[in-house]
Design a protein that fits this description.
The protein is α/β, with parallel strands linked by helices. It has a single domain, classed as Transcription Regulator spoIIAA. 44% of the residues lie in helices and 28% in strands. Strand 4, helix 4 and strand 5 form a beta-alpha-beta unit. Helix 1 runs antiparallel to helix 2 and helix 2 runs parallel beside helix 3. The longest helix has 16 residues. The protein is globular. The two termini are 24 Å apart. 32% of the residues are buried.
Length: 131
C-alpha cells in the first residue's frame, strides 16, 4: 500500500468510531512506523486496527505499537495483535509493543500471551533497541 494512502486509513479509523478508538501512525525513517492506539480495542474496532497494522507492515520493517492509551483490550484486539505479530515474523518484519496500560497489560497476562510478543518500556526504547 502506498504511503500516500495512509492518512485516509488513519482518518477512517478515527472517524468511524471517534469515541471508541484512536489510531495514529508516525513515520520514523523509511523502514519504521510507530502506531499509537488509544481507547477501546474490541469487536467493533479490531478490524480497523488490523487494517492499519497490516498496512504498516507492508511498508516498514519495524512497527512499534504503543498501547499506553488503551483503556480496554478485548479478545478481538488480542487476536489482531497475535495475528499481526505472526504475519510480521513470516515476512521478516518486527513488531514491538509498548504496553504501560494497566487494562491492556492485564488482558495480555491473563490470556497468557505476554511471552509471545517483544516489549519495550517506551517507544524510544523500542526504536533504539530494535536496530
Amino acid at each position: 500500500m502506498p504511503l500516500r494512502a495512509l492518512p485516509s486509513i488513519v482518518a477512517g479509523v478515527n472517524s468511524a468510531y471517534p469515541d471508541i478508538v484512536g489510531v495514529q501512525v508516525a513515520e520514523h525513517g523509511p523502514d519504521t512506523r510507530v502506531v499509537t492506539v488509544t481507547g477501546e480495542v474490541d469487536a467493533l474496532t479490531a478490524h480497523q486496527l488490523s487494517t492499519v497494522l497490516t498496512a504498516q507492515l507492508d511498508v516498514a520493517r519495524l512497527v512499534v505499537v504503543s498501547l499506553d492509551g488503551v483503556q480496554f483490550l478485548a479478545s478481538a484486539g488480542l487476536r489482531v495483535l497475535f495475528e499481526v505479530n505472526e504475519l510480521a515474523a513470516r515476512h521478516d518484519r518486527h513488531l514491538w509493543l509498548v504496553c504501560n496500560s494497566p487494562a491492556a497489560t492485564r488482558t495480555l497476562e491473563t490470556a497468557g500471551l505476554w511471552e509471545h510478543f517483544t516489549f519495550a518500556d517506551t517507544v524510544p526504547d523500542a526504536l533504539n533497541n530494535s536496530s
